[in-house]
Please model this.
Amino acid sequence: MRTPLLAGNWKMHKTVAEAVELVEALLQSIEQGYSTDREVVICPPFTALYPLAPLLAESVIALGAQNMYPADQGAFTGEISPLMLKEVGCRYVILGHSERRQLFGESDTLINRKVRAAVGHGLTPILCVGETKPQRDAGQAETVTLAQLRAGLEGLSAEQLRGVVVAYEPVWAIGTGDTATPADAQAMHAAIRAALAEGWGATVAEAVRVLYGGSVKPDNIDALMAQPDIDGALVGGASLVADQFVRIVNFEALSA
Ligand code: PGA
Model:
């Protein structure tokens, strides 16, 4: 059984003061009536991690970062190491988000180094993969997504793969309000799981959580979560609004 994971990607939003305010609102509503059959993580900007850690320490919400550099320390101006993330209480780290790939030129090779460094330090990577609109229109959605998946996870043992979360985020659905249909998302999630089974064995593939991301909102979360291979969501815009994120966390499991 895979425990559903609902993850908030705050991107470059929220000062420390605003972050504290949002977390206080989330804690109040999420903890009332929270079901322990699901896990929640929020990934604020680096500057908010340290001040938020004590607020979240005894709570049901885990802390994650949005990026990191694959070295413990050194001359890497502007970067943050896995040790630093662990020190401030992070358990998760988003890696290979399409904004990092597109705006900051991150390659599959660099992303793979980050995934391996995260796993090596006991952080759970949330590896993002997904195709652009032109790639989907050209019928390459699956090829592109699976190539990113295999490259991102290269070199991991089956045991290490168990500690990884994958997020399928079609680039054309991110921040656009244009979400994949539950059936299209399910088809890609099934393809991702089949690729994991081929590379690492069926048992591990069944254990890995595959999240969907791209315009996840209160009004589409239930239908997405009803799909057998969708194990949670990576939520951008709607994770910045307490009521919306709480509704997403409290998704209702509809029968598919
Ligand atoms: P969105 O972002 O929910 O605002 O589409 C998702 C993401 O980029 O992870």
User: Anything to note?
Assistant: The chain has one domain: 5-249. The domain at 5-249 is CATH 3.20.20.70 (TIM Barrel). The mean pLDDT is 95. Residues 9, 169, 174-175, 213-216, 234-238 surround 2-phosphoglycolic acid (CB under 6 Å).
